[in-house]
Amino acid sequence: MTSQHFVSPDLIRQRFSKAMSDMYRDEVPLYGALMNLVEQTNAQVLGREPQIARQLQSTGEIQRLDLERHGAIRVGTAAELATLARLFAVMGMQPVGYYDLTPAGVPVHSTAFRAVHEDALQVSPFRVFTSLLRLELIEDLPLRAFAESTLAKRQIFTATALLLIDRAETQGGLNETEADAFVEAALETFRWHHSATVTAAQYQQLSAQHRLIADVVAFKGPHINHLTPRTLDIDIVQAQMPEHGITPKAVIEGPPRRDCPILLRQTSFKALDEPIAFTDQGQPRGSHSARFGEIEQRGAALTPKGRELYDRLLNAARDELQDFPNEANAARYNSLMAQHFEEFPDSYEQMRRQDLAYFRYFTTDKRPDAGLSNLTLDALLDAGYLRIEPLVYEDFLPVSAAGIFQSNLGDAAQTHYGAHSNQQAFEKALGRSTINELGLYAATQQRSIEECLAALGVSVPG
Ligand code: OOG
Ligand code: NI
Description:
The protein is of the alpha+beta class. The chain has 19 helices and eleven strands. It folds into three domains: about 5-300 and about 395-430, Uncharacterised protein PF07063, DUF1338 (2,3-Dihydroxybiphenyl 1,2-Dioxygenase, domain 1, Roll); about 300-355; about 360-390 and about 435-460, no CATH class. Helix content is about 45%, strand content about 15%. The chain has a five-stranded mixed sheet with strand order 2-3-4-1-5. Strands 6-9 form a two-stranded antiparallel ribbon.
């Protein structure tokens, strides 16, 4: 079979993302309400700010905006994580980044499966934040053994999904019929189950150790716990959520509001309490909360230098607050953040000149005469031959992710783990290394520079 019979992994991902969204909207009606709110807000912003509309048009993001979403799942074993990596690879998704959540008292470490090339991201930017439970952090040994044996008994993939993953690997792709069957079979892994795999008492024990441990161990599979649409103005959505019957978390995670958005800002609403039947109950008599809603606003990807500045300012604001942000200190937190972030230049040109963010370069209508070959990028920009747009941040932020986890687990779930981050152990479980996101942004920026220089007939400056 030749490759022209294969459906592109990007299209399989696009179909899967849509199927996941449809399933989640059926299961969690509040997600539909949130989607509508985000859609209305985005239309408002595009009408009100023609410059944002132009920017999104020139980068092509306008076409992916409505498709854009990320989900999150949590798995329990190395084998589950490794097979997930193979499942996501069928859809062109690679593990990007390593996030350690233990400093925030959440016993997991994580990566984000996503497309890595700008052309693939354009077809579907779907991402899945994927966490692996760190069972070695359960100090109660009998409970740890119980968790391990419970997890060892479950199979989170359908036989068809496993068969099609194998087939994609050996054939080098999937044909139309196989791709559709794959999407349908893969979806099953992420479905919600109304019955647990443990008794009510066992659930209580796991939950008392950490609610997250119960969420991973007590169920048939890694149910998708949220799907997050992308908004162009998160402050509007945050302010309007209560009118739509949705209560947001106390503060927006990430950088403060700016003219030139950077990285990622996120807010969420609390997990729903859902009826569950435990194995010693015929009917759903217990309950479990895992599934919540989240929205995000994405801004410019930062260079290592920009990221260092972001981390320093964030830490300074949090140190000064001397507590986790919460309802009581939210106003003070927001003002501390605004104060500290004054130090971060709020113009794309300054961010570029100071090497704080990554950009995509575009040629303009202005065409050169002969003799451009010695001009630097700065000179080409100044002379109006080139213009820039920020490269959108495609990844996550560990401090924000911890805040999202915490707001859904409740403060009672805060535990202090002495353990250190262990990227090596994570990658061993994953069966491969994770990709450094900074290299991906640098490569995208470089490709856009080279395309521009070729179009202008300029040799690459040294
Ligand atoms: C993942 C929480 C992190 C984000 O957007 O940072 C996250 C989880 O609760 O499993 O989704
Ligand atoms: Ni999320």
